[in-house]
Design a protein that fits this description.
The complex is a heterodimer of chains A (about 100) and B (about 425). Chain A is mostly helical. Chain A has five helices and two strands; from the N terminus they run ββααααα. In chain A, strands 1-2 form a two-stranded antiparallel ribbon. In chain A, helix 2 crosses helix 5 (about 90-95). The relative contact order of chain A is 0.19. Chain B is about 25% helix and about 25% strand. Chain B is built from eight helices and 24 strands. Chain B has a five-stranded parallel β-sheet with strand order 5-2-1-9-20, covered by helices on one side. Chain B has two domains: about 5-110 and about 255-320, FAD/NAD(P)-binding domain; about 115-255, 3-Layer(bba) Sandwich (FAD/NAD(P)-binding domain). Classes of the chains: A mainly alpha (about 100), B alpha/beta (about 425).
Amino acid sequence: MTAMTIAETSVDVDAEGFLTDPRQWNERLAEEIARENGIPELTDRHWLVVHFMRGRYLMTGNAPSIRSLGKESGVPIKELYQLFPKGPAKLAAKIGGIPKPRGCI
Amino acid sequence: MARKQIVILGGGTGGTMTANRLQRRFDADEAEIHVVDVDNRHVYQPGLLFVPFGLAQVEEIVRPRRRQLRNGVVFHENEVEEVWVERDEVLLDDATVLPYDVLVVATGVRLQPEETEGLTAAGWNERVFTFYSPEGAEALRGALERFDGGRLLVNLVDMPIKCPVAPLEFAFLADWYLRERGIRDRVELVYSTPLDGAFTKPIASERLAGLLAEKEVKLVTEFNAGEVDGVGGKLVSYDGRELDFDLLVTIPLHGGAAYVERSPGLGDALGFVPTDKRTLQTPAKPNVFALGDATDLPTSKAGSVTHFEAEVLTENVARYFADEELDASYDGHANCFIETGFHKALLIDFNYDTEPLTGHFGPLPLLRESRLNHLGKLLFQWVYWHALLPGREIPGLGPAMPTAGKRRTPVHTS
């Protein structure tokens, strides 16, 4: 775990850049992480997914898988890939300031 | 106590074991146990892996469900329409209503190939197969016999799946089978997975990726299959990557039983039943328990898990009736043999907190190929029918994961 500064805020991140403490997150931070990961601007659809991921994590302690995300967020999986090209669940978790979703065994 | 009604949905590994353990635990005047399943065919599922290679026949791995249940257990060959959690009742497809004092959900998973675009369209069971059902495994056997070269693609659509090591085992056995047939040099074997490695946990993933490489199986990671063209022989990922195939062996999406989705308050969006990971009680209601593949627990969907869970669950049903605090001791313990071909197998043993490590489990080496592990895997079918399902204690196979014999180094962090 290392500390780094994103959007003028000091945050703790893991080796892959996922926030380790979701409380350090804010929306400006999200925009900056998105830009660094190839998404120049977060649209309403992006925000819907990011807030859904974050809300689910904060409520249950688990981030949803891409499948539940497709079923429950109202954004179909195909569109999720258009919004977050390099792996929607991972990228939305990163932007949403929650730990990397762990695939179940 | 007044005679209790215990209804168990599902007569597979978990339901059968639970029914037999509870039947032994309670006298006939204390509890009546009902088991509901849609058919009378109990499949020894680990055997399905061997069917495509002609190493097992479907008839050898299927037995009547009814005969695996102890005398006194009432078997209903019915589909479950709906569970009325609020009213403590189950509605069956012939309009029978079964009232219960305790409900045990053990209906496992349902394969959902139709959820992947094109998967069950033209080419299904011709060029595109799964060995996760007896019919599929049998059809694949014929296709493999006719296969004389080209690209054999093994694909796992998405987690969770039953027996997460089975697709890897299939790739290992395919390599062996094709070498035995003398056509390995004419076949390109490819393994594609949505995971970022061969497996979910770092040490096992590294070891298994090494085995794939040794056997010249190409590994394609982070491949989320979105669409199948069974006629053109193309598997397309959601991010637009394409993998060509001459023969596709796929592990389709898994979801919970259909009635779970029809029963308000019982399951999640995928039809799995949220379950307490230590006690196996569900948040749906205190008298509803679940085990096996049907749950949403963060451990493998595997018979060994179900076996260890059944011990804790049985205890907790008794404690629930006695109004005692539940036993919160289930630790996520799982173990699996991993067939690697050439009469060898690996063994992994792990739980919620400890990933599969090297070392040994009793006399068996962990995460290392050995003939002894292969014999263990073969012998296990006998143990399954004669000790596991009847609910007998098996020495050395308790619910809590043993730590003796496991090497803690090298340490990986995930």
